[in-house]
């Protein structure tokens, strides 16, 4: 089993505190939500008072049922012995409006993103980890505990989310599958988690998926595929109609593609962008150019822009990573 020299400091941080706020990044995904909920459960088992905070919004269908577990604000200032653990992001900016409220308190970070500027009293960071829930499992076991069935399900949920249900894993992933075995032994069902992530989609989500596929354009000789979702799409199909993972799966199956970008107009002034790659392109470097971050093969960012202007800048940014003709779209 992999050993972490940072773990003893984090365990001391946990053992010495009595009140904790567990914080995740805004617009949380399954790994963020699963990490927060499982870690909070363990802290409560240790007798710690624990509060869950996340600015949201909870847009992804698989995490929406958990929104009521979270507060969008921290407790009032002045709470004695309050400590903060931030999961799934190391740069406090990604916590959104919670950022300034976090700074007065002792703070620990648990993350697996290579980009960002880690801040905290204790930093438990492993960019090679497949998910933060993988790291939370190591924390639980280092505390001498075994995950409960509910914790195991949350941990496997996050792990499956960030690995695309293991599609993104390669040679050298044996530690991940050993962790999966321990979670299944603790009561987590891979079948249930698959349905949790991929089942229960609306018919409208299939219509929206078809529209985004028809809208996809190819650049740099087919190496880059770009699609987008407008405000009108969101109004017609609703946020629950989004199925980003399936869209990425379908586009990654196209012959010759190396990177994918999906732009979404979230408001009249803001766009979010999801980036994916197969192997050769580090999309976290692209995201960092726009103030975002993530992993080599999965990253994203938020920008103050409209789709037409941002799309042009984004395609140009990929130019440094591809050999070939200027970025002229082909149908």
Would you kindly provide a written description of the structure presented here, covering whatever features stand out?
The chain is of the alpha/beta class and about 325 residues long. The protein folds into 2 domains: about 5-195, inorganic pyrophosphatase (n-terminal core), CATH 3.90.1640; about 205-320, Diaminopimelate Epimerase, Chain A, domain 1 (Roll), CATH 3.10.310.30. It is about 35% helix and about 20% strand. It has a 6-stranded mixed β-sheet with strand order 6-7-8-9-11-10, sandwiched between helices. Strand 10 and strand 11 (about 300-305) form a beta hairpin. The longest helix has 16 residues, at about 30-45. The protein is globular and about 55 Å long.
Topology, please?
Elements: H1 7-16, E1 19-24, H2 30-45, E2 49-53, E3 82-87, H3 99-102, E4 107-111, E5 122-125, H4 132-142, H5 149-162, H6 174-185, H7 190-198, H8 203-215, E6 217-219, E7 224-229, H9 231-237, H10 244-252, E8 259-265, E9 270-277, H11 283-289, E10 293-294, E11 298-304, H12 307-317
Parallel strand pairs: 1-2, 1-3, 3-4, 4-5, 7-8
Antiparallel strand pairs: 6-7, 8-9, 9-11, 10-11
């Amino acid at each position: 089993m992999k050993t972490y020299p940072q773990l003893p400091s984090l365990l001391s941080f946990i053992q010495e505190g009595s009140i904790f706020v567990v914080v995740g990044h805004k617009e949380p995904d399954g790994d963020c939500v699963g990490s927060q909920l499982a870690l909070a459960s363990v802290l409560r088992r240790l007798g710690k008072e624990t509060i869950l905070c996340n600015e949201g919004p909870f847009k992804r269908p698989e995490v929406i049922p958990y929104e009521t577990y979270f507060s969008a604000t921290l407790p009032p200032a002045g709470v004695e012995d309050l400590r903060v653990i931030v999961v799934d992001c190391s740069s406090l900016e990604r916590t959104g409006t919670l950022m300034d409220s976090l700074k007065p308190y002792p703070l620990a970070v648990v993350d697996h993103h290579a980009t960002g500027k880690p801040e905290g009293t204790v930093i438990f960071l492993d960019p090679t980890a497949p998910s933060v829930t993988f790291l939370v499992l190591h924390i639980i076991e280092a505390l001498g505990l075994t995950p409960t069935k509910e914790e195991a399900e949350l941990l496997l949920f996050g792990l499956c989310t960030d690995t695309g249900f293991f599609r993104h894993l390669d040679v050298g992933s044996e530690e991940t599958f050993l962790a999966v075995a321990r979670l299944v032994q603790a009561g987590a069902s891979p079948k249930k988690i698959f349905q949790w992530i991929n089942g229960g989609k609306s018919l409208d989500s299939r219509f929206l998926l078809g529209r985004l596929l028809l809208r996809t354009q190819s650049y740099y000789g087919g190496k880059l595929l770009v699609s987008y979702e407008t405000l009108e799409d969101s109004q017609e199909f609703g946020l629950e109609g989004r199925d980003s993972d399936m869209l990425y799966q379908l586009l990654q199956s196209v012959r010759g593609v190396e990177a994918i970008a999906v732009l979404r107009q979230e408001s009249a002034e803001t766009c979010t962008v999801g980036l994916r790659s197969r192997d050769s392109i580090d999309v976290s470097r692209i995201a960092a150019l726009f103030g975002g971050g993530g992993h080599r093969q999965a990253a994203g960012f938020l920008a103050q822009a409209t789709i037409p202007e941002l799309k042009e800048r984004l395609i140009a940014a990929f130019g440094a990573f591809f050999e070939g003709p200027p970025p002229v779209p082909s149908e």
